[in-house]
Amino acid sequence: MVRIYTDTNVLRYFGEAFVTRNVPQEIAVQLFLAPLAMLELLSQLGTGDAEGSFAAVQALPRVHNSTACGVLPWSDDFFRMCLFKLQPDDDIVTQSINNAVNRVLNTARAAELKIEGQEMRTLLDKGKNEAADNFAALLASVKAGGRIGPAEDRRIFAQSIARRAGVEPESVDVDFVLAHLDAHYRFEQQRINAAIENPEYNVTKRANDVYDSELLIYLADPSLHLLTCDTGFKRANGSSQAKRIHIVPADALRDPDTAITTLQGIVESAKGAT
């Protein structure tokens, strides 16, 4: 089955499009939520942009399958399940997201959810700051010692994925991991190259890049397709998984008819490619 997941902005555009209309059920059952995109969306409830976030969450039952909305695993669990065929760990973050979504769906006004939004923002910022610090340390190491060879770079990357999954790093099959995370790896390589080549590169200001990169991990599952309006994902164009990254204009998703047509087009093109 073709499965489609989105970034945060697409969820907001769906909130505009499906205020009263529903996505046809044969398409709705193929739509899945990425937990990181949901966390970012919920965090916006604590900002001046709360109304758009509130509308997007309120629209979820009209966009996704209302009885069994599919939620993708948190990234580390996804690695465990998809790459290493292991059982997931206890997923506290996704449960917190589910609880927050239910709270929004049962609340009349966005203004009542400011505290919940701020709590999600704290959680999101913590992850963002940790990722920015890690990237800054990596960048400093590369600048000090120079780029390592491609084989060593691939090995370090694959072992870092194994650590996140709770797997013994030395046991990992490097080629297997790289093949399944090709778009994610290429995106990360381009981030490093851009930072090295640009002396004005600001790690903190570009911290959101980590979330774009994390969304690409789900392409390790060949049934999953990413729908986005962010042209920054073109950095993965050279990947073997690039055909499953669908970059469309925002206006194609703000209207219910064109949004449904766009979703149907992804499903049909994917079926035709199999």
Topology diagram in text:
Elements: E1 3-6, H1 8-17, H2 25-28, E2 32-33, H3 35-43, H4 50-63, E3 70-71, H5 75-83, H6 92-105, H7 114-145, H8 150-165, H9 174-180, H10 182-197, H11 209-215, E4 224-228, E5 245-247, H12 251-254, H13 256-273
Helix pairs in contact: 1-3, 1-4, 3-6, 3-7, 5-8, 8-9, 10-11
Write structural notes for this entry.
- By secondary structure, the protein is mostly helical.
- Helix content is 58%, strand content 6%.
- It is built from 13 helices and five strands.
- The protein has helices at 8-17, 25-28, 35-43, 50-63, 75-83, 92-105, 114-145, 150-165, 174-180, 182-197, 209-215, 251-254, 256-273, and strands at 3-6, 32-33, 70-71, 224-228, 245-247.
- A three-stranded parallel sheet has the order 1-4-5.
- Helix 1 (8-17) crosses helix 3, helix 3 crosses helix 6 and helix 10 (182-197) runs antiparallel to helix 11.
- The protein is globular, with a radius of gyration of 19 Å.
- The mean pLDDT is 91.
Structure, briefly:
This protein has 13 helices and five strands.
Shape: globular
Cα-to-Cα separation, first versus last residue: 11 Å
Provide the spatial order of strands within the biggest beta sheet: 1-4-5
Would you tell me the overall average pLDDT?
A: 91
Specify the number of helices: 13
Helix percentage: 55-70%
Care to count the β-strands? 5
- The helix/strand class is mainly alpha
Series of secondary-structure elements, N-terminal to C-terminal: EHHEHHEHHHHHHHEEHH
Approximate strand percentage:
5-15%
Question: Which ranges are low-confidence, i.e. pLDDT below 50, for 5 or more consecutive residues?
Answer: none
Q: What value does the Rg take, in angstroms?
A: 19 Å
Main pleated-sheet profile: 3 strands, parallel
